[in-house]
Amino acid sequence: MIIVYLSLILVIAAVAGFVLSVRKTAGLMNGSMARIAKTGEKMREQKEKMSQEKNRLTQSFTAIQLDFYKKRERVNELTRGLQKSIHLTQENIYKVKKSIKGEK
Q: Could you give the C-alpha distances from 89 to 19, 77, 81, 85, 86, in angstroms and in order?
């Protein structure tokens, strides 16, 4: 009978040890889970910041491209205007020379 009681005490001690071990492990896991959640939140915030910065850079790049295109078109218009002006001036000079030769 003593062996039965000793076996029963041993089983109770093993169960108590197991419960204490589970409680300790759960406590450690809880702290780890909190750190993991905190790290995940920081990563999410950084991702949002990076996304906002990317959008801002994309908008800036698009604005620069548009400005460049407008300035290029303005330069092209000026160039065409100058070419027309030069062509008209050459025609007028030719007409003046022709009329001067015609008067002689």
A: 103, 18, 12, 6, 5
Instruction: State the Cα–Cα distance between residues 20 and 25, nearest whole angstrom.
Output: 9
Helix, strand, or coil (residue 54) = helix
DSSP 78: H
Q: What is the pTM of this model?
A: 0.54
Helix (H, G, I), strand (E, B) or coil at 1: coil
Residue 31 C-alpha from the chain's centroid: 33
CA–CA–CA angle 83, 88, 92 (5° rounding): 150
pLDDT digits (tens, 9 = 90+) for 51-70: 999 999 999 999 999 999 99
